[in-house]
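Q: What structure does this chain adopt?
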Amino acid sequence: MKGCEKVGKVGLEDVYRLHVNDIYRYLFRLTRDARQAEDLTQETFFRAFQSLDDYRGEKVRPWLFKVAYNAFVDWHRKQARHPLQIMERLPERADLQAMDPAEVFVSQELWETAHAYLELLPEQQRQVILLFAMQFRYAEIAEVLGISLADVKRSLFRGRQKMRKLWRDQADDEQGR
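A:
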């Protein structure tokens, strides 16, 4: 199953191997919780397997991300109904032992700042930026999120503008001190 354009029950293992890491990373960035991301990744592939009969032959990757996004939305709604006090979660990190300590510090600080700024964006802008950062094309992002191509472009533009403004404001604050 080379490009995975069509999925059958036989090729689901191949699809899983090709996309599980990307799905997990996406869900981790949404939840900031490794265990929850693992659970939602499992839920995504479970739902995908269940809905193979409804699969219309579209590209697999955007279809799986749409399933993952819907699983996240369902989980998020449940959390809103049953709020729990959850400890602040740690950001995703690279292999810290393989990096220079100065690089680790800068990388960690940049990730934490970027993540904090992403959290300030409206949900749609945050989703579009995350999917774009994962190398999705505009049309694929529109398909995953169920929005128009124009909304994708607008959300990406406005989200980037807000992120740049936040970065500039932080730089101005640091220089003014």
